[in-house]
Amino acid sequence: MNLPKHFKYQLAQAKTSWQLVVLGIGVGLLASTAIILLRLAIEQIQHFYMGSNDNFTAMAQVDRLLMPLVGALIILLFVRLTNQKFHRMGIPFVLHRQRKFYGYIPLGNSLNQFFTAIAAIASGFSVGREGPAVHVGAGSASFLAQKLQLPNNASRILASCGMAAGISASFNSPLAAVVFVLEVVLQQYRIHLFLPIMVSSLIGTAMSRLVFGNVHLYDNIVIPNITILSMVPFLILGVTVGIVAVMFNRSLLMLIKRSSNMSINIRLPLAAVIVGGIGWFIPQAMGSEHGALALALSEHPGISLLLMALVGKFIATICSLGLGIPGGVIGVLYAIGALLGSLIVWSLVPFFPQLAIFAPMAVMICMVAMMATSLNAPLAALVAVLELSGNAAIIFPSLLVVVPAILLSQQVFNSKSLFFAQLDLQKLSYKVSPVLYELQDTGVIALMRRKFNVLDASDPWLEINSTLPTIVRQHGDDGKYLMPSDIMGLTSENKTLVEIKTLPDNSTLAEAYQLLSPKRQGFVLILAQGSLTPVGVLSWRSLMKHLHRGKGY
């Protein structure tokens, strides 16, 4: 389907437009529908074999041992069916595609992620559903952008919309989803990005509430007043969370590196045996985060049980993700943080009984602090804890934990975001120069010149004397286009024709810059997508004027 030229022209510009907002609504509907289907599939499967959702404590020990193995075998079946063609999945892969391919994700990747995530989460592996939600959400946006033949700059924005819709549909937290995408994925706050991403997140939340209800599991938690003396335990929590987050990141990366040469036929069953063995003794360590959170928020949980659950959850998560089980990391980071916070507070209660009232709040704060430190997403974590609790009073104690945790992680241990560390380990490129990143925001059709002469090679082009650029069509199978050397800025005693490079009309200024920058002069010819029909020309001079104007030079 090809949209009207005026519609695509508006999308090609780096500014807010009603066209982009409408497409954001469409992406929100498509992505949230996919995530709702994923959640319903997981819930129905778990209800079938355990009678409820994520209630592994109610299962027999043998069932807890065998279910991960069944899930691993189903995942291997999907791998066999796709011949490992679409085996890269998860948020790091989406980040790579967002930075280098304008958010384009092959449909096979999204389908593989959808079905293997259902198998992994439903069978009790210690992985979260937000990774698949981000991947499937971005894949839904990519599918829509390809069908509509949108400019690449708009495709990249819609991929971000799909991610926000996926997260909000998973966690019922629309604002946290928007901040996460801006802070972690795009790593920039641009005005024209806000509205489409916000409306997609809103649609994701509305669709989720329509099916699952407006459920906030933690809005009944009391937030006590913080005194000067009670600030010290929260600072201690922050230091502890920082150390554990660094241990988590390094352990996971080390296992990914050491297992990279192992066959997937060995890695997945090995992960199943480890998780099933842990689940035999500690059912709270299985699944995403619900079992661990129920234990952490229970009244007077046993210290030994909390410690066992924390160690079990830590190892089960490292082995699940490190050995290649498809799933996300945010939910399980929530679980590890919650168990850690509960363990520390209840360990101190015998010596300082007044700390007991702070236990539920500490659990919530450590949940998001663990995520913030591991993924380097402090603002997203603060917005998440605000939405989860529904109480702005939690912001101050959250800062007391998040700030020292991230400072310790980055400044003392030189730790970086887990997602980008995974990309480095997997040798997936994601770095883009500031100039190209700036130019990726605008499509070529927003800047190209639409009036130009088009002649055949047999025409007397030497006699053309016009202020318009002259393009000479060369007949043949190669379909080359030529341009007089003087117009291209090349010095020549005799007027000659030189080949002009071409780009499809969905390209961005970044791609034009890469073609023209070696000689820093000349033109690039813009062709209608999927054809050899010229629709405009773009000069190096126009490109530089746009770049300098955008940078405020």
What do you see in this structure?
By secondary structure, this protein is mainly alpha-helical. It folds into three domains: 5-217, Clc chloride channel, CATH 1.10.3080.10; 231-425, Clc chloride channel, CATH 1.10.3080; 443-551, CBS-domain, CATH 3.10.580. Helix content is 61%, strand content 5%. It contains 21 helices and seven strands. It has helices at 5-12, 18-50, 61-82, 91-100, 107-122, 130-148, 152-171, 174-186, 191-212, 231-258, 264-281, 290-296, 303-322, 330-348, 359-375, 378-389, 395-412, 418-425, 434-439, 509-516, 540-551; strands at residues 453-456, 470-473, 481-484, 497-499, 501-504, 523-527, 534-539. It has a four-stranded mixed β-sheet with strand order 1-2-3-4, with no helix packed on it. It has a three-stranded mixed β-sheet with strand order 5-6-7. β5, α20 (509-516) and β6 (523-527) form a beta-alpha-beta unit. α7 (152-171) packs across α8 (174-186). It is elongated and about 95 Å long. 52% of the residues are buried. The mean pLDDT is 87.
Structure described in brief:
The chain is mainly alpha-helical and 553 residues long. The protein has helices at 5-12, 18-50, 61-82, 91-100, 107-122, 130-148, 152-171, 174-186, 191-212, 231-258, 264-281, 290-296, 303-322, 330-348, 359-375, 378-389, 395-412, 418-425, 434-439, 509-516, 540-551, and strands at 453-456, 470-473, 481-484, 497-499, 501-504, 523-527, 534-539.
